[in-house]
């Protein structure tokens, strides 16, 4: 199915919406995830029939999963994010909250959350993931932290902007991603996973487009009525004034776990 569907009346739950206003930039400039990550996830899933990408945003992870799974359900509570997502014949986009997916019980081989677990009601989402997973199904969540940019001057400018200028505007939940979800325990035995890295080669304009998708930037604009990235660009141009590409990297942390092979309890039926 190549579609986008809306929730049934009354199924939308309140959520913290930091990205609907930047959905077009989110689709254009958010980095994709390494192919090795999706290959590994497919290898540990009990089957490759059905994956659920929760809090899909504009579908970066869903597109990667669609290369390995027969059907991908990609959900997000933001209508604007789903509207900006790239269509794919094996992806079914749905506008529903993470904690009430409306997915059939015991029908999903793999549940993923990419760079979004910290925005969810984690306990309720974990219960929902356990409900929809098949026996032996896999839950995988991952996050990337602060961006690093090639070059001592440009790297320091970005570090100062991230930590100092934007520091007061990051939502509290963002600290969980920066810590690599260190304090989050999955509700099932964890799997040992390889180390993955995120690395791209970007122009200055691509980097600035990505930075404009930050939740802290949106909150800064909302409070101060001006774009802080404009000032950042002026500082960057002093050291990066051409169309050359530079390496941009993020630390990527993955946590994955497998449910019991026993049939789901009647609690979830």
UniProtKB/TrEMBL annotation:
Which InterPro entries does the record match to this protein? Diverse_substrate_MTase (IPR051052), Methyltransf_11 (IPR013216), SAM-dependent_MTases_sf (IPR029063)
The record's annotation in SUPFAM superfamilies points to: S-adenosyl-L-methionine-dependent methyltransferases (SSF53335)
Q: Which Pfam families match?
A: Methyltransf_11
UniProt keywords (A-Z) are: Methyltransferase, Transferase
Domain (Methyltransferase type): residue spans on this chain? 53-140
Q: Which residues cross the membrane?
A: none
Choose any GO biological process term that the UniProt entry carries and state it: methylation
Question: MF terms per GO, please?
Answer: S-adenosylmethionine-dependent methyltransferase activity
Task: Write down the superkingdom of origin.
Answer: Bacteria
Of which family is this protein a member? Belongs to the methyltransferase superfamily.
Name this protein carries in UniProt: Methyltransferase type 11
**Gene source species:** Chlorobium limicola (strain DSM 245 / NBRC 103803 / 6330)
């Amino acid at each position: 199915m190549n579609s986008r569907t809306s929730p049934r009346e009354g199924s939308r739950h309140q959520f913290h919406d930091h990205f609907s206003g930047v959905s077009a930039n989110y689709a254009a400039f958010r980095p994709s995830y390494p192919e090795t990550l999706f290959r590994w996830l497919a290898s540990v899933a009990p089957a490759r029939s059905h994956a659920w990408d929760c809090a899909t945003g504009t579908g970066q992870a869903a597109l990667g999963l669609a290369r390995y799974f027969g059907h991908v359900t990609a959900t997000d509570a933001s209508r604007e994010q789903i509207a900006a997502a790239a269509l794919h014949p094996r992806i079914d986009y749905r506008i529903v909250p993470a904690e009430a997916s409306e997915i059939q019980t015991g029908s999903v081989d793999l549940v993923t959350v990419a760079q979004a677990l910290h925005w969810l009601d984690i306990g309720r989402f974990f219960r929902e993931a356990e409900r929809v997973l098949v026996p032996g199904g896999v839950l995988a969540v991952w996050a990337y932290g602060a961006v690093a940019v090639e070059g001592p001057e440009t790297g320091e400018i970005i570090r100062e902007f991230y930590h100092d200028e934007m520091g007061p505007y990051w939502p509290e939940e963002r600290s969980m991603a920066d810590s690599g979800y260190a304090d989050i325990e999955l509700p099932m035995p964890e799997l040992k996973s390889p180390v993955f890295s995120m690395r791209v080669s970007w122009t200055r304009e691509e980097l600035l487009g990505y930075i404009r998708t930050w939740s802290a930037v949106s909150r800064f604009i909302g409070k101060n009525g001006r774009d802080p990235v404009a000032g950042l660009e002026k500082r960057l141009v002093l050291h990066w004034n051409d169309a050359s590409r530079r390496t941009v990297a993020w630390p990527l942390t993955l946590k994955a776990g497998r449910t019991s092979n026993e049939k789901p309890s009647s609690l979830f039926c």
